[in-house]
Design brief:
By secondary structure, the chain is of the alpha+beta class. The protein has helices spanning 6-25, 31-34, 88-92, 100-123, 203-208, 238-249, 265-268, 278-285; strands at residues 35-39, 44-46, 74-76, 78-87, 141-144, 153-156, 159-161, 172-176, 184-188, 193-197, 210-223, 229-233, 269-273, 289-290, 294-295, 303-306. The longest helix has 24 residues, at 100-123.
Length: 317
C-alpha cells in the first residue's frame, strides 16, 4: 500500500496539471475568429468607444477632436468553476490512471468555455441589447445623419427575416472579421487554473475521504459593432447569402461614410452556422462548380464555422 506523502501529492498535482494542459491544447478555439480578446483588470469594463469607427480627415487648422459617445456599454465579469473529487483510496490502491482522461476533459472544457460563451451570445442576439440600446440583431439601429450627431438619426437593419414565420427558421450568421475589432468581445479577467485541496485537515478531505481539484475562471462576453454582423432567419441559399453580404456592404458610419465591410472574402468573412446547416453551407461556399459545370460565384466567399453553441440549451434537456 503506497504511503501518501507531500511529495506524492505534489507529483499527483503535476501529473493532473499536465493532463489538464493536454486537454486544453485540443480545444478548437473557434471564438478567436469571431471575437476580440480583451483583458480586464476590474469587476467590469466599460467600452465607451463603441459606436465610433475611427477615420482620418484632412488636417486644416487645429486637430478636430472627436469625443467618444458615452454609450456606457459595460461587460461584467462572471466567475465559473468546475470541480472533481479524487478518492484517497484510489491513491492508496495506486488506481490513479483512471483520472487522467477526466482531467484532460476538464482542460478541454475550460479551453472551450469561451466558444460556449461567444457563440451562445451570438445566438441570443435577437433578444440581447448591444451598445446602442437595441437588440444586437435588429431592424432599427440608429445611425446619425451627420458626423457630429446633428440632424437626427436614420435607422439601419442587420436582420433579414423570412416573409412568413421567421422565428421557426434556423438562423445563420455572416460576420465581418477583417478589422482589428471583431463583432463580439471576449473579456478575460483571469486565466483558467487548476487548484487542489489535499490537506487532511480540510473538511472535505477529512469527512468525505477525497481530494478536490477545481478550475476557476473569471470572464464574460459582449457585443462589439453590430455593423459587422448580419443574422438571417431564412433558408441558407445563394440568393439569401447575396442579400446578407450586400446588406453588410451597404452599412455606413455616422454621416453616411461607407464602412467597407463584407469585402474581405474568405479571410475576412465568416459564415457561422449550427451543425444542422453545415451541409447546406458547404454546398453554398465550398463547391467550385454548380449546375452541371457552372462556376459558383460564392465559392470561397467566406470561411465556414459550424458550432453547436448557437442556440440556447433546451430546458430539461
Amino acid at each position: 500500500m503506497p504511503i501518501i506523502t507531500d511529495s506524492t501529492l505534489s507529483g499527483l498535482r503535476t501529473g493532473f496539471n499536465a493532463a489538464f494542459r493536454r486537454g486544453a491544447g485540443r480545444a478548437p478555439g473557434y471564438w478567436r475568429q469571431a471575437a476580440t480578446h480583451m483583458s480586464s483588470t476590474s469587476a467590469s469594463t466599460t467600452y465607451g468607444w463603441l459606436g465610433q469607427f475611427p477615420k482620418l480627415a484632412e488636417w486644416v487648422g487645429d486637430r478636430a477632436v472627436k469625443d467618444m459617445k458615452e454609450h456606457g456599454y459595460a461587460i461584467e465579469n462572471k466567475t465559473y468553476e468546475g470541480t472533481v473529487g479524487v478518492k484517497r483510496t484510489d491513491m492508496e490502491d495506486d488506481n490513479l490512471g483512471i483520472y487522467a482522461p477526466l482531467f484532460e476533459e476538464m482542460g478541454y472544457a475550460a479551453a472551450t468555455h469561451p466558444d460556449e460563451l461567444v457563440f451562445g451570445l451570438l445566438g441570443k442576439g435577437f433578444s440581447t441589447n448591444c451598445y446602442d440600446g437595441q437588440f444586437f440583431f435588429d431592424t432599427d439601429h440608429p445611425v446619425a445623419v451627420n458626423v457630429d450627431g446633428t440632424g437626427g438619426n436614420a435607422t439601419a437593419s442587420n436582420l433579414i427575416d423570412a416573409a412568413e414565420s421567421p422565428e421557426s427558421k434556423t438562423p445563420w450568421y455572416l460576420l465581418d472579421v477583417s478589422r482589428p475589432l471583431k463583432p463580439l468581445i471576449f473579456q478575460e479577467r483571469t486565466r483558467p487554473e487548476l487548484h487542489a485541496i489535499t490537506d487532511v485537515r480540510n473538511d472535505s478531505v477529512f469527512m468525505k475521504d477525497q481530494y478536490l481539484y477545481g478550475v476557476r475562471y473569471r470572464c464574460n462576453v459582449g457585443f462589439g459593432f453590430w455593423q459587422q454582423a448580419v443574422a438571417v432567419r431564412d433558408e441558407l441559399s445563394a440568393a439569401n447569402f447575396e442579400k446578407a453580404l450586400g446588406l453588410m456592404q451597404s452599412f455606413q458610419a455616422d454621416g453616411g461614410r461607407p464602412l467597407g465591410l463584407g469585402m474581405g472574402g474568405k479571410a475576412g468573412t465568416l459564415l457561422v452556422v449550427p451543425p444542422s446547416l453545415f451541409a447546406a453551407a458547404r454546398r453554398l461556399i465550398a463547391v467550385e462548380l454548380v449546375n452541371n459545370g457552372e462556376s459558383n460565384p460564392w465559392y470561397d466567399a467566406a470561411t465556414i464555422i459550424s458550432v453547436p453553441w448557437l442556440l440556447p440549451p433546451v430546458v430539461g434537456g
